[in-house]
Design a protein that fits this description.
This protein is of the alpha+beta class. It has two domains: about 10-90; about 95-170, Alpha-Beta Plaits. The chain has three helices and four strands. The chain has a four-stranded antiparallel β-sheet with strand order 1-2-4-3. The chain is rod-shaped and about 175 Å long. The N and C termini lie far apart (about 140 Å).
Length: about 170
């Protein structure tokens, strides 16, 4: 009797292989979905932690600004104090000038007016003779606290036999 050999695979093998692949695919899809779900939860966790970090950074930044404000105020006060100190060093007090004029004005000179603006004082004086006035101007010019003494006008009044002179004192160094 002849032996019959069937080389084609049986029908049920194809069905078994197909159902096995289908079953495995379901499990793979289930695992992928579970992984995607956990990845979504992890993304939410990372987003929340970034929000918390941003809030912490804002809190720290505001604390730094509150600490910086007094430092800036201190620096501004230091600048103002140094400007005041420099001003004191480079200028002469007008009260000093008036006291100096009171002490050094000879008896033959009468001061009629004193006008101050900025660092300049304009003085109008009358004297009986020009020699007394020139010695007074020389005395004022030799004061080291004055930067310059300028005689702006001088005139002789014949009716009163007196000299009227106007001079400026600049009192910045």
């Amino acid at each position: 009797m002849p032996v019959q050999i069937n080389l084609t695979p049986p029908e049920n093998t194809k069905k078994n292989l197909f159902s096995w692949i289908q079953g495995l695919g379901k499990y793979i899809l289930l695992i992928v979905n579970i992984l995607l779900f956990f990845m979504y939860l992890y993304g939410l966790f990372l987003e929340r932690s970034n929000v918390l970090r941003a809030e912490k950074i804002n809190v720290i930044d505001s604390e730094i600004r509150t600490l910086r404000d007094p430092a800036e105020k201190y620096d501004k006060m230091q600048k103002v104090a140094s400007r005041i100190s420099l001003e004191k060093q480079t200028s002469v007090d007008p009260v000093f000038i008036l006291d100096f004029l009171r002490k050094s004005t000879p008896s033959g000179i009468q001061i009629n007016s004193i006008v101050t603006n900025d660092f300049r004082m304009t003085i109008e004086a009358v004297s009986k003779d020009s020699i007394t006035f020139s010695s007074f101007i020389e005395l004022v010019s030799n004061e080291p606290r004055f930067s310059s003494v300028i005689l702006t006008s001088s005139s002789y009044n014949g009716s009163s036999d007196s000299y009227k002179s106007v001079f400026e004192i600049n009192y910045t160094k």
